[in-house]
Amino acid sequence: MVPVTLSHLRPSRKEEIEDWPYLDEAVLLRTRSRRVCVTCHWFRHHAGVNCIPVLTCQLHQGLIAHGEHLASRCQGWTDNQVRQKVWAPEVA
């Protein structure tokens, strides 16, 4: 098996992820559905300084405050590609 290069997943901003701005109410909308940041295709988490999780939106290239990823979403919310294709590795 040949390893896959993940360089295409890197953000286009040149600064470190920890230096990205936090997303505010102008971008994030409160919601009570399953369409929240944590279920979005663009959501990522990274190990920050001292291994503290850093929550990010790759679409907006911004940080998400802890807790907001469970109760907010943006207009660009997209279902995770794995769920869209109904991927089930245990069946393969």
General description of the model:
The structure is a single chain. The protein is mainly beta. The protein has a domain at about 15-80. It contains 2 helices and 5 strands, in the order ββββαβα. The chain has helices at about 70, 80-85, and strands at about 30, 45, 55, 60-65, 70-75. A 3-stranded antiparallel β-sheet has the order 2-3-4, with no helix packed on it. A two-stranded antiparallel sheet has the order 1-5. The chain is globular and about 30 Å long.
What labels would you give this structure?
92 residues; mainly beta; three-stranded antiparallel β-sheet; two-stranded antiparallel sheet; 9% helix; 18% strand
Detail the topology: elements first, then pairings:
Elements: E1 29-30, E2 43-47, E3 53-57, E4 62-64, H1 68-71, E5 72-73, H2 81-84
Antiparallel strand pairs: 1-5, 2-3, 3-4
Reported for the largest beta sheet, the result is: 3 strands, antiparallel
Average pLDDT for all residues:
82
Oligomer: single chain
Order of the strands making up the biggest sheet: 2-3-4
Strand content: 15-25%
Broad shape? globular
Number of helices: 2
Quick rundown:
With 92 residues, the chain is mainly beta. Helices cover 9% and strands 18% of the residues.
